[in-house]
Automatic annotation (TrEMBL):
Protein name as annotated: glucose-6-phosphate 1-epimerase
The organism of origin for this protein: Actinidia chinensis var. chinensis
Source species, domain of life: Eukaryota
GO biological-process terms attached to the record: carbohydrate metabolic process
Amino acids binding substrate: 66, 84, 89
UniProt-listed Enzyme Commission number(s): 5.1.3.15
GO MF annotations, alphabetized: carbohydrate binding; glucose-6-phosphate 1-epimerase activity
Pfam families per UniProt: Aldose_epim
């Protein structure tokens, strides 16, 4: 790599939408669209795509982009008069030229700060003033970090309440060959059964039908093992107690217009979230939620990798 490497590049993406490309010296990269403040691509140093984006995803506002890492705010799910998963994922964000200080490793050159503020239009459906700051960082080893800071800037003295999720779409070889470690024996709310509460069994989670669950009080680290690709995704999170696991499977996939009929086989959503207990901010208060994604080679299928060590390792 030349010393002239551009760590942060501003350019146009699909449909002429503004995007920022982050690059690291070893060759990993990430692409962030200002529309939705959404990471659309995350590649390792071999140029392999780690996130799933639907082949039918419309990059046409005001439709949300199916894939990558949509941000669900001010609500996860669909309740009341707000649109499904809130409005942050289909608004145009701005580059934040005056971010507050982040506690960060100064060796990271590949990052971008975005900001979303209330608009008069949004105030009609969600009558609050807020500032949502998002930093997306590509670490030296290719790790992808998203840090969100949401502040209540109401001047009328009113608190507001929200739920939140980083809606991660991971690219997997075959959903039937994937397992999740770290959520065993935990309680979850099943969205397929009116959010009834159940307790997960002691085994790692595998997939053979539609899944839409909100695991509560989850550990800060979750591992997603893709046997066929010999790859393990590790999701670390802070300030986000819940984890949503979703795959639509075959019947539901056919009903989703912006998803290919067979694409459910190559995607898995494991989301860092705060859903069960909504967050309330008084005027002037700020909430922070962070996730870090890494992809590590694994040879679990040959029995050489103990997934528990992945979870316990640093």
């Amino acid at each position: 790599m030349s010393a002239e490497m551009v760590f942060v590049e501003h350019c146009k993406g699909i449909s002429g939408l503004d995007k920022v490309i982050l690059r690291e010296v070893r060759g990993s990269s990430a692409e962030v669209y200002l529309y939705g403040g959404q990471v659309i691509s995350w590649k390792n140093d071999h140029g392999e795509e780690l996130l799933f984006v639907s082949s039918k995803a419309p990059f046409k506002p005001p439709k949300a982009i199916r894939g990558g890492i949509p941000i669900c705010f001010p609500q996860f799910g669909s309740h009341g008069h707000l649109e499904q998963h809130g409005f942050a994922r289909n608004r145009f964000w701005s580059i934040d030229h005056d971010p507050p200080p982040f506690i960060t490793n100064n060796s990271n050159k590949a990052f971008v700060d975005l900001i979303l503020k209330h608009s008069e239009e949004d105030a009609k459906i969600w009558p609050h003033r807020y500032e949502f700051r998002l930093r997306v960082t590509l670490g030296p080893g290719g790790d992808l970090m998203l840090t969100s800071r949401i502040r209540n800037t109401n001047t009328d003295g009113k608190s507001f309440t929200f739920t939140f999720a980083y809606h991660n779409y991971f690219s997997v070889s075959d959903i039937s060959e994937v397992r999740i470690e770290g959520l065993e024996t935990l309680d979850y709310l099943d969205n397929l059964q009116d959010r009834q509460r159940f307790t997960e069994q002691g085994d790692a989670i595998t997939f053979e039908s539609e899944v839409d669950k909100i695991y509560v009080s989850t550990p800060t680290k979750i591992a997603i093992l893709d046997h066929e690709k010999k790859r393990t995704f590790v999701l670390r999170k802070d300030g986000l107690p819940d984890a949503v696991v979703w795959n639509p499977w075959d019947k539901k996939a056919k009903l989703i217009p912006d998803l290919g009929d067979e694409e459910y086989k190559h995607m898995l959503c494991v989301e860092a979230a705060a859903v069960e207990k909504p967050i309330t901010l008084k005027p002037g208060e700020e909430w922070k939620g962070r996730q870090e994604l890494s992809a590590v080679p694994s040879s679990y299928c040959s029995g050489q990798l103990d997934p528990q060590k992945v979870l316990q390792g640093n």
